């Protein structure tokens, strides 16, 4: 989850330009699983705190990706109020542990409540308050199955570098908010955040050791897996 609510539209359907799929079909896919009561509460906490939260489609995709790799160890950069963390935990192995990092200790208090309200036991998550790049540099090389990044967009390329160090072969890195606001494909937008997003996309696409895809769920997920060889 991003710390800035402005990063995400109040409704992810706003500003969608669909190619080959009509808006009602896109909305149907976005709400394929939908939010339960716990997630709805976490979203309300995010709105009250001015924190951005990934959309339902992105949350569903995160659960699927975590389940696909049989994730036991996951790192999340940007805890928010627990929407994305809960999606990851629900897809992970039942003996798996989520390590989630956020600058704001209050965000993490709210995320802890979200996880516990959903029936996640406290031994399955580790909340670390601090600057992402200060924390993740201390985590173990090659130990993690999935790294999810939803924090300072301007630091995404640095997050990518750390994620590739942390991931085992076959592990997945995911970045949220790639398509938010339609700025990235529009060359007229040259602000630092948009430029950083373009740099990230280019770095992932041009890395021969990665197999990647840009998924148009919610606000967009950039996903990549480390080749097994």
UniProtKB/TrEMBL annotation:
- Classification via InterPro entries: Cation-dep_OMT, SAM-dependent_MTases_sf, SAM_O-MeTrfase
Entry keywords, A to Z = Methyltransferase, S-adenosyl-L-methionine, Transferase
* Keyword S-adenosyl-L-methionine attached: yes
Q: What is this protein called?
A: O-methyltransferase
Xref: Pfam families:
Methyltransf_3
């Amino acid at each position: 989850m991003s710390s800035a609510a402005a990063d995400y539209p109040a409704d992810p359907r706003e500003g969608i330009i669909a190619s080959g799929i009509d808006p009602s079909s896109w909305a149907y896919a976005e709400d394929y699983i939908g939010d339960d009561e716990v997630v709805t509460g976490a979203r309300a906490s995010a709105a009250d705190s001015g924190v951005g939260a990934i959309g339902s489609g992105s949350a569903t995709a995160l659960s699927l990706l975590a389940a696909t790799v049989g994730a036991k160890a996951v790192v999340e950069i940007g805890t928010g109020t627990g929407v994305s963390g809960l999606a990851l935990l629900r897809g992970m192995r039942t003996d798996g542990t989520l390590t989630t990092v956020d600058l704001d200790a209050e965000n993490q208090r709210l995320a802890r409540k979200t996880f516990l309200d959903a029936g996640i036991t406290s031994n399955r998550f580790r909340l670390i308050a601090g600057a992402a790049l200060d924390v993740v540099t201390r985590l173990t090389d090659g130990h993690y199955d999935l790294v999810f990044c939803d924090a300072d967009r301007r630091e995404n390329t640095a997050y990518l570098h750390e994620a590739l160090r942390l991931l085992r072969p076959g592990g997945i890195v995911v970045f949220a908010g790639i398509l938010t606001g339609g700025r990235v494909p529009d060359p007229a937008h040259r602000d630092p955040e948009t430029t950083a997003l373009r740099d990230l996309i280019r770095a992932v696409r041009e890395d021969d050791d990665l197999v990647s895809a840009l998924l148009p769920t919610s606000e967009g997920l950039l996903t990549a897996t480390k080749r097994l060889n």
